[in-house]
Amino acid sequence: MSKTLFYIILGIITVIAPFAFPAFQTQLATLWLMIIVAQSWDMTGGQMGYNSLGNIFFYGTGMYVAAVVTIGLVYPVGEYTGAAGGGIYTFTPDEYFLGMALSIPAAGIFCALCAFIIGYVTFGLRGPYFAIGTLGVAIAGGEMVSNWDWIGGGQGISMPSYPYNFDQFKTVIYFLYAILGIALFFFCRWLYQTRFGAAINAIRDDEGKAEAMGIHTMRYKLIAWAISAFFVGAAGAISAFQLIHFEPLETAYQTINLGIFMVVCVLLGGKGTLWGPVIGAVMFHVFKELTWNYFLGWQWVALGALIVVVVVFFQDGLMGYLKYKRPEWFGIAVDTKEAKV
């Protein structure tokens, strides 16, 4: 099967999935969210070798940027959040869709700028210190927002409700995630084949040698993290509309949930590969949904066991395992002839 035909088949499946399985539209939308955050994380964690535990900061920030932009176009944000979370306010369809159209790219751009600013400090750290530093950024972001009354503080903030049928709303959210996820995949597919992709791979393999070869490592690190932050922030903006009401610590800056899940997805599928984060996200999401439905009360135990198994036995993920067992699938020539003595 050619790659073009393969992508066409996947595209057809993507389009018909929410209509073929209408009862699972929310789960399918969440699957696309997992693909987006996993592939975004792999851009720095897998391709560049900087394992961040703070990418959830951009997700939560994207949610709040979406809320501020959407609400601010119509009402004073401080008054809106101070009146029972905006329950007394209404939005026309035009106001709702204008807010959605502007807030999603705005969230991505704002998070990319945040990545540039934060990166100047955090990229001075390497290895586990970088991971811990970025985790601290995510925790600090959640605490700061939870104490900021102008955007709702600890009680959170409410988005305007979808003006039409709720079933239609779920379909719209699904396709917003799907479009963003597809755009991210093909962008990464192109990016990793360019000089930029070779540069961040060189940073991963040996940053010292990359600098000695004349690669401006800080510039590449900042740009890579900004690109990753853009897509995570945009996904967070879509999530804000999907959830309607969200809180800073439990929903937006959920470091122990989505912040960890995105890393596990990449580890499960294979770091530093194009398809690894996608396959890992699918596998992890299916596993999570099954344990949540059939092992309620034990789901965290099951997820913890999965993480241990992956880290101990499949450190290269599924793609790394398959590349070792079936190298011919990846275009790697293997000489099966016995060496002559």
| Percent helix range | over 70%
State the secondary-structure class: mainly alpha
- Mean pLDDT across the residues is 88
Order of strands in the sheet with most strands: 1-2
Low-confidence stretches: none
Q: Span between N and C termini? A: 40 Å
Rg calculated over all Cα atoms? 21 Å
Strand percentage, roughly?
under 5%
How many individual β-strands? Answer: 2
3D shape? globular
DSSP helical segment count: 15
Largest sheet: 2 strands, antiparallel
Keywords for this entry:
single chain, mainly alpha, about 350 residues
Structure explained in plain terms:
The chain has 15 helices and 2 strands. Strands 1-2 form a two-stranded antiparallel ribbon. The protein has helices spanning 3-20, 25-45, 56-72, 77-82, 93-122, 128-146, 166-191, 195-205, 207-212, 217-243, 248-252, 258-269, 276-294, 299-313, 317-325; strands at 157-158, 245-246. α1 (3-20) packs antiparallel against α7 (166-191), α2 (25-45) packs parallel to α7 (166-191) and α2 crosses α13 (276-294). Helices cover 71% and strands 1% of the residues. It has a domain at 25-255. With 341 residues, it is mainly α.
